[in-house]
Design brief:
single chain; alpha+beta; tt1808, chain A; 6-stranded mixed β-sheet; 3-stranded antiparallel β-sheet; about 20% helix
Length: about 190
């Protein structure tokens, strides 16, 4: 996350500015962070996963949101834009603008070289504070790799890794699956040297 000049904002000030901004910015502890653009591979993976979830969840009481839906981690004060967010049941939002989600059940982040550390460590530490969150997926864009973290009843998180295009990851929280060949459809990987 790259920070704007040091001007401490309240959450209310951040939301007022963000709702008028032509670009997306994240917020934590009074600071605003620019939201980076994405590569072709990143966009293809997000598009593929959105499609897969939407097709499997279309007749269920679940909603799939792209990265324009802001998520607030109320327990820590983080406002962020996950690549994909899924809610089942009634979506809880922060206010009448209905643009800040409070109760995701599943979050997906596609890893980029500039965001991987934040997605893997910093954001996941925040996301784990969401009582509603049951699964967290990290998807690599430079190789076939999907990491699935599933919350257990004792609040531990179990990791399962997938790295074979023939594999399929079952999402228990939303009762659907992601075949890696479909997640990575039309994605070209860099040639190894």
């Amino acid at each position: 996350m790259s920070s704007f000049p040091k001007t401490s904002l309240t959450p209310r000030e951040y939301l007022a500015r963000e709702r008028q901004s032509p670009t997306k910015n994240e917020y934590y502890n009074g600071e605003v962070f620019a939201f980076a653009g994405a590569s072709e591979a990143h966009n293809l993976i997000v598009s593929n996963v959105l499609t897969l979830f939407n097709l499997q969840l279309r007749s269920r009481p679940c909603k799939v949101y792209p990265s324009d839906m802001r998520v607030k981690v109320s327990e820590t004060g983080l406002y962020t834009y996950p690549d994909i967010t899924v809610v089942c049941g009634e979506a809880e939002v922060e206010d009448e603008h209905m643009d800040t989600l409070l109760n995701p059940i599943l979050i997906v982040e596609v890893l980029s070289p500039s965001t991987e550390k934040d997605d893997r460590i910093v954001k996941f530490a925040h996301y784990r504070r969401l009582a509603s969150l049951k699964e967290y997926l990290l998807i690599a864009q430079d190789s076939v790799r999907l990491e699935q973290y599933v919350r257990q009843v004792d609040d531990r998180w179990i990791l399962t890794e997938y790295s074979d295009l023939q594999a399929s990851a079952a999402m228990q929280s939303v009762e659907c699956s992601l075949a890696l060949r479909d997640v990575y459809a039309k994605v070209s990987f860099p040639a190894s040297t």
